Structure formats: structure tokens, C-alpha cells
């Protein structure tokens, strides 16, 4: 399971279940706090000029 850094994913309730989930064979990974290479829109926004409505 890949988790972002949303507050719910760092809640005590979720963290207490990690051991249970891992014992059932589930791997848990957190995304880095800022990962533009994992977000396709970031690539688009950095390669295309912005168009403003006037």
C-alpha cells in the first residue's frame, strides 16, 4: 500500500494497525513529502507555458 502524507495516514489508529497489516503480507510505503516526478501534472505544468484569460 502506498500512502501519501495526509493527516489520516499518520493517525494513531492507522499506525497501530501497521503491524497487523504487515503480518498479513501487506507492504506499506509512504510517498516523499514532495514528489513531482510521481505527479504527471507537475511535468505538464513545467513544460507548457501558462495561458491567462484576459
From TrEMBL:
GO terms for molecular function: nucleic acid binding. Residues 1-45 form the Tc1-like transposase DDE domain. InterPro entries: RNaseH_sf (IPR036397), Tc1-like_DDE_dom (IPR038717). This is Tc1-like transposase DDE domain-containing protein. It comes from Spirosoma pollinicola.
Amino acid at each position: 500500500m502506498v500512502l501519501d502524507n495526509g493527516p489520516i495516514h499518520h493517525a494513531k489508529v492507522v499506525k497501530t494497525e501497521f503491524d497487523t497489516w504487515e503480518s498479513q503480507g501487506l507492504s506499506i510505503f509512504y510517498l516523499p513529502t514532495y514528489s513531482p516526478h510521481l505527479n504527471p501534472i507537475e511535468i505538464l505544468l513545467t513544460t507548457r507555458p501558462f495561458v491567462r484569460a484576459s
